[in-house]
């Protein structure tokens, strides 16, 4: 072997190692942490380079992104195995290659939606389980959250078991209405579906829709074709991803029509999927370790334009995150004039080596959202602001999970203060009706509010408020009454209202349950105790401890808490009379207004509610014990007790 050959082989191996590490880190940041560290364009470019090197050298490292499906499931969510693995798809950007893939077969060409892949299982006509893709073998169990999807059928007119896969998506319109914490609709959909508290899905801007793209098993379609399966799913009440049956003669034309349609589509799409329509042919083709051989993904070929970076604007958010936005000479992309693109965090700026005046290329991710593709100059001269653009206080760089972000630590910063007050008063926080962002701005400007605790002293300014434009005596009185009402609140709402980074409503509930609604215990909790809480982990615990470590935050906590009458939760679920018992509810109710109300009562008393009867079920609540429904039959088969609402109340100790 020649020395030169050895040097060349070592160089290739080193590049493969470097690319594998970079792409694995980027994938983890994007899929698991929800904090992208490079653009999709850059990821695809590096991925293609790695794949080419692997094919050329024959070297494929363990854990290579070209062989791995998805990413590791999040630690804080329960896990379950997929009955059928969710494989990735081979990719192409060539229409010609897509057409050749079909051969003489018919195919189903469907829109590849950019959301979170979900596998749903139905039993006895009801939704039984919902899993995320995870790593393709093991997914996160998000069944409770799936029940809150906007368009998902919880019951279907088919009692045999079947499994369906699809994409959980959030519309562009909803994405635009939420905070800047999320980078794109897919990131928002992923963060929403993977919340610990299903009620988060009812918040404004978090309406999740499920669009099916395939029947995996079961079903009553009499067709031997996948298009027939999709039509059957539609009859069962599912919304499907847009699709059409194509041949090699009209496939290219259909690709062009789809590509034009996505410019006005409500959901993000990153391409198309082509699968052989015949199920018999598909089975014969088989699969590789990563890819099914009957399907291929077509990625949109991004239209790019060269321009010049003019400036970077920095905007301070409620949480103190200072977000960078690139401003460049206007260029036309996909039929519209574009002059700005979000940069998301410092990692992306560093990867692109940006500098003012650099020649850059820009594109529209999913043909909608402007992004910087490449920096042709790579001067790296962009200065990161040392001061907050709003308050002028010193900024700081915070690194977490390989993601670097710029923050303003000044909680009195006007931008943070207005947004923090708005969040504090919002519906899922302290729920102070009428306390809008516009109201907060006016009160901050007049000096009525210097922090969130001042909200509870707003009555001191009653005469001034009623004289302000847009108020009057009635409005001022209503606002004062709403503030007084908010003084009585459960501790978890107060914790959520404080806007502690990474501690949302669900996390606040877990904290308060663990610490028995005791503010002092929570405030002084040791790191190891926080990390031991089910559903918490090192990242959330560190964020909470870091927040309380600030003397300013600790004083704010004490000051605001002094105004609150903490409402103790009625019962600790672990010691309630129904602790450890699992219930299923069916049939018409008489004493409760709906099933959600009865479910809330059961959970308040320590019990759990399931959607289907199993060997783990202890009681089926049904006022018609003689019913021949599938659930009653299943309960009788398994020896599960069937009780009426009245009997349930006696069991729970709630009867008169």
Question: Would you kindly provide a written description of the structure presented here, covering whatever features stand out?
Answer:
- This protein is of the alpha/beta class and 656 residues long.
- It has five domains: 3-57, Helix Hairpins; 79-299, DNA ligase/mRNA capping enzyme (D-amino Acid Aminotransferase, Chain A, domain 1), CATH 3.30.470.30; 306-365 and 374-407, Beta Barrel (OB fold (Dihydrolipoamide Acetyltransferase, E2P)), CATH 2.40.50.140; 414-567, Orthogonal Bundle (DNA polymerase, domain 1), CATH 1.10.150; 573-651, BRCT domain (Rossmann fold, 3-Layer(aba) Sandwich), CATH 3.40.50.10190.
- 34% of the residues lie in helices and 22% in strands.
- The chain has 23 helices and 25 strands.
- The chain is globular.
- The mean pLDDT is 84.
Largest sheet: 5 strands, mixed
Radius of gyration: 28 Å
Q: Averaged pLDDT, please?
A: 84
Low-confidence stretches: none
The CATH H-level superfamily of the largest domain is DNA ligase/mRNA capping enzyme
Strand runs, count: 25
The first-level CATH class name of the largest domain? Alpha Beta
CATH architectural type of the largest domain: 2-Layer Sandwich
Q: How would you describe the shape? A: globular
Query: In percent terms, what proportion of residues is strand?
Result: 15-25%
CATH topology description of the largest domain: D-amino Acid Aminotransferase, Chain A, domain 1
Which structural class fits the helix and strand makeup?
alpha/beta
Number of helices: 23
Sheet with the most strands: spatial strand order: 2-12-11-3-10
């Amino acid at each position: 072997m020649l020395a030169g050959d050895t040097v060349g082989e070592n160089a290739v191996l080193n590049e493969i190692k470097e690319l594998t590490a970079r792409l694995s880190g980027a994938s983890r940041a994007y899929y698991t942490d929800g904090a992208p560290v490079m653009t999709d364009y850059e990821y695809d470019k590096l991925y293609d380079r790695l794949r080419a090197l692997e094919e050329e050298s024959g070297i494929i490292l363990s854990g290579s992104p070209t062989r791995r499906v998805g990413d590791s499931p999040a630690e804080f969510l329960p896990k379950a195995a997929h009955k059928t693995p969710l494989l990735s798809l081979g990719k192409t950007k060539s229409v010609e290659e897509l057409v050749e893939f079909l051969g003489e077969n018919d195919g189903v060409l469907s829109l590849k939606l950019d959301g979170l892949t979900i596998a749903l299982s139905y039993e006895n006509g009801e939704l039984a389980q919902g899993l995320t893709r995870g790593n393709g073998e093991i997914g996160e169990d998000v069944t409770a959250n799936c029940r809150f999807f906007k368009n998902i059928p919880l019951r279907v007119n088919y009692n045999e078991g079947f499994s369906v896969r699809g994409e959980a998506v959030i519309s562009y319109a909803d994405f635009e209405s939420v905070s800047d914490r999320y980078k794109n609709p897919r990131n928002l959909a992923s963060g929403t579906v993977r919340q610990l508290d299903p009620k988060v899905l009812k918040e404004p801007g978090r309406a999740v829709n499920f669009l099916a793209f395939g029947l995996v098993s079961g079903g009553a379609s009499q067709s031997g074709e996948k298009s027939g399966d999709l039509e059957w799913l539609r009859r069962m009440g599912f919304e499907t991803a847009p699709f059409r049956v194509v041949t090699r003669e009209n496939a290219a034309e259909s690709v062009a029509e789809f590509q034009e349609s996505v410019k006005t589509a409500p959901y993000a799409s990153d391409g198309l999927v082509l699968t052989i329509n015949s199920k018999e042919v598909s089975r014969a083709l088989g699969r590789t370790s990563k890819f099914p051989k009957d399907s291929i993904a077509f990625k949109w070929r991004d239209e790019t334009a060269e321009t010049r970076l003019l400036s970077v604007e920095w905007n301070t958010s409620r949480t103190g995150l200072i977000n960078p936005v690139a401003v460049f000479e206007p260029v036309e992309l996909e039929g519209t004039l574009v002059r700005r693109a979000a940069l998301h965090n410092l990692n992306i700026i560093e990867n692109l080596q940006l500098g003012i005046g650099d020649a850059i290329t820009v594109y529209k991710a999913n043909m909608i959202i402007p992004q910087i593709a490449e920096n042709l100059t790579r001067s790296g001269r962009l200065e990161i602001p040392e001061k907050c653009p709003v308050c002028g206080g010193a900024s700081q760089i915070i690194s977490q999970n390989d993601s670097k972000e710029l923050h303003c630590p000044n909680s009195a910063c006007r931008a943070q203060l207005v947004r923090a007050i708005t969040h504090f008063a919002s519906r899922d926080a302290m729920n102070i009706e009428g306390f809008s962002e516009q109201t907060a701005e006016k009160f901050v400007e007049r000096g009525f509010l210097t922090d969130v605790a001042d909200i509870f002293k707003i009555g001191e300014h009653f005469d001034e408020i009623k004289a302000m434009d847009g108020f009057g005596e009635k409005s001022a009185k209503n606002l004062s009454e709403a503030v007084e009402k908010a003084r009585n609140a459960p501790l978890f709402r107060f914790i959520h209202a404080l806007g502690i980074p990474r501690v949302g409503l669900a996390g606040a509930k877990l904290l308060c349950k663990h610490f028995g609604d005791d503010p002092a215990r929570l405030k002084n909790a040791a790191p190891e105790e926080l990390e031991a809480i089910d559903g918490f982990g090192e990242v959330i615990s560190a964020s909470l401890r870091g927040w309380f470590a600030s003397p300013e935050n600790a004083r704010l906590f004490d000051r605001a808490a002094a105004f609150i009458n903490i409402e103790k939760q009625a019962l600790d679920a672990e010691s309630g009379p129904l602790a450890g018992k699992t219930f299923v509810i069916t049939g018409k109710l008489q004493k409760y207004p709906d099933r959600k109300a009865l479910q809330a009562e059961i959970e308040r008393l320590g019990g759990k509610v399931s959607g289907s009867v199993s060997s783990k079920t202890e009681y089926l609540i049904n006022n018609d014990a003689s019913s021949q429904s599938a659930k009653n039959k299943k309960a009788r088969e398994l020896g599960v007790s069937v009780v009426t609402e009245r009997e349930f109340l006696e069991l729970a100790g709630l009867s008169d």
